[in-house]
Each structure stands twice: as structure tokens, then as C-alpha cells.
Amino acid sequence: MKRILGLLGGAALCAHSAAALACGATNEPFYVRSEQGPTGGDVPLNAPLVVELTESTDGPAEPHLSPRLTLVIQGSGEAVELGPAGSAPHLMWVPVESLSPSTTYEARFNSGYEGEPDHSWEFTTGRERQAPLSLEGKLEVTLETAMEPSIVCPPNRCVCNVNDCLAACRSGAPTPVTRARVKLPRALSGFGRRAATVWLTDGTPYDFAESTKGGPDSEPHEVSLGEYATFDDDGNAQDVRITVPEEAAPYRPCFALRVSDDRGDSVEDSLCLSEAFPLADEPAPATGQEEAQEPSTTSSACSFGIASSPSSQVALALLGLLTLVRRRR
User: Fold this and answer.
1) What would the pLDDT profile of 151-173 be if each residue is shown by its tens digit?
2) What are the C-alpha distances in Å from 300 to residues 1, 165, 324?
3) Residues facing residue 16 across a β-bridge
4) What's this model's pTM, rounded to 2 decimal places?
5) What is the DSSP letter of 249?
């Protein structure tokens, strides 16, 4: 049995869009600008331009966000070519070429709402580039036994109204499951906040290159489950736990990691366990790594996947997704 399971990557707009697709068209939220950057002096030559938005109820009945940003060298008015790389509420533009050293720039932003005035600010570059996002270490995975309550949700109530779904779901007796504890490598350098997406798939690692094209990866996975993680200022993240579903036939669990920063740069890593799941013996703590890929730099995007598992795991994963959507919005 297969189901579509949306992993809504990187911004609250992804969750809003998924809900609109599932439940019919809804009005866009109305946004107001809350902060922008960079500002001040000694700005890295490869810095992105960021505008943070927050939702507001004080707006038109049918708002249509159409943001634009221009960047010019102060004095000469020479325009800088920018490439958009973010989505609401975290808007971002990346200069196509490095900024000039020791130069003052003027940025001008407009949300595109009717009658909205431009907002401008200035910043001055330094002489250095910021080190790119990188990973220190590799993915590590340990299988553990755990007890989880079985969760049963009524059909057709979990698509459009998260609160109704959660209220209608009920817990059954705890059942033994196998969890993968995924230890993430440290995320170093890069710009601003760093966040991770971890995918569990069968047979081969999740293909992020395909997901950036607007759909799931091209591999015919029977298992495709995702989780989010964030990093602290020192680049450390808490371990990610994913319940490993049992399928009709044993399969080799594979794990894929993508870490992204505020510039939209990403680094990736992956591994596949050496033994098939379920194991022949009880899953005592075990680790395995095989065919781990070298980190590579790509662009970030929302991604979607397909998963399958027994009915009790379907309900459990669905509840986890709804909780994820509520937390991200």
C-alpha cells in the first residue's frame, strides 16, 4: 500500500501550498516585512540579500505577493544582477557574481502589493568571502528497539483540518518497533541558520537532485520517510529518530542527508546499512555504512516523497507529518 507523504521543505509557504493543493484553493496569507539584510559594514563578498516576512491580518482580502528587489552601487547607480533563491516568508536573492570589495550598495525592496512603497537600505562590503557551508564528519546510524502506541485516525479527516484529525485519532496498545537513531555531522560555516532534511528509503539513498525539479526522486522506493533537524550556533544538531517500517520483503535501509543554509547552499551525505531489515536476529544496537557519498554542493527546494508500510505505521507517520506541518507553519 502506497501513500503520498509530503516533506515540506525549508519554509512555511511549502506547508501552505501543500494544504492548498489537498483542500482546494485558499487565499494567500498577507505578509509584512519584519527585517532585512545584510546591513552595516564588512559584509562578505558572497553574502545573500534576505528579507524576512511575517503574516498579518491587516491586509487586503485577496493579497498577492509578488516580491522584487533591486541592488545598485551607491553613487554610480550600476545595477547588480540577482538570482532569487528563497520563498515566503524567507525571501532571498543571491548576486550572480561576487560583490565588489569596499563598496557601498543600496538595496530596494517591494512586496508587490498594490500601493506598497519601496523600502531601501544600505550596506558596505569588506574584502573577504564567507567560507562555504561544509560538513565535519559523516552520517552515523544505530538501530534501536522501542515501544510506540498504535495510532488510528479516521479516513478523510486528516487532509484539510489538522486539529480535527488530531482530535479524532486514538491511541492503542504500545507495540514494539525498530527506530533508526541518525547522528548528524557538524554543519560548519555558511550563512545564517542551517537546517537538515533526513530521508529513509529502501535500497538506494534518496536522490535530492531529482527532488529539486519539483517532484519526488526518480527511484521506485517503497519506503520514503523524511524528518527535519536544525543546528545550533556551534553547528551541532540533536539526533534524528525515524521509525523503520517493516515491508513484505526485507530491504536495506538507506539514509540521505541534506543541510542547507540561509544562502540556499546545500551539502549532502548518505549511507546504506550493510544488512537487510528486518534483521535475522533481534535488532541489538548495530551500525553500518556502505557506499557513503562525498558531500556535494547543490541548491535547496521543497521535496515530496512516497512511503509505504503496514496500516498502523501509516497512521503513525501521518500524525507525525501533521505535527511537523503545525510546527513549521
Assistant:
1) 777 766 555 555 556 667 777 78
2) 30, 31, 19
3) none
4) 0.69
5) S
